[in-house]
Design goal:
It contains 1 helix and 9 strands, in the order ββββββββαβ. By secondary structure, the chain is mainly beta. It has one domain. The strands form 2 sheets. It has a 7-stranded antiparallel β-sheet. Strands 6-9 form a two-stranded antiparallel ribbon. A hairpin with a 2-residue loop joins strand 7 and strand 8.
């Protein structure tokens, strides 16, 4: 049995960086995640500058051209990403570089304005 409009892609990773360009300010944003059985845990974030909807927390420190900070959140299950043609695409980054989500899912589509990332139940057994 399948679901209409559903694409499954599996990545065997335990750690990854999610990166994108802010639609208004045109600066890069990066978030580092760890995948575990209980969900996808946001560990740290970096942003090149502030602006519309990009409030930098008071605890952030500037270094290497970006503001660095560590959000405190519970693991996400799923991690839901808005994905439309107007907003551009996300990139999944690992040690060997970055790949846009469109490599797996095709270009952002207004008829499918979001994508969900889920941690597999045995995520702790994966290796990068």
């Amino acid at each position: 049995m399948g679901w209409a409009g559903v694409i499954w892609a599996q990545l065997a990773v335990t750690d990854f960086t999610l990166a994108w360009q802010h639609t208004v300010e045109k600066v890069r944003w990066e978030e580092d995640y760890h995948v575990a059985a209980q969900g996808i845990q946001l560990l740290s974030a970096r942003v090149k500058g502030s602006g519309a909807g990009m409030e930098i927390p008071p605890s952030a420190r500037f270094g290497d051209g970006s503001w660095h900070y560590q959000p405190v959140m519970q693991p996400l299950q799923p991690l839901r990403l808005a994905r439309t043609p107007q907003a551009g695409d996300y990139q999944i980054c690992q040690g060997d570089g970055c790949q846009p989500l469109s490599d797996w899912l095709g270009p952002p589509d207004a008829d499918q304005p979001a994508v969900e990332l889920w941690a597999c139940p045995n995520a702790g057994q994966l290796r990068n």
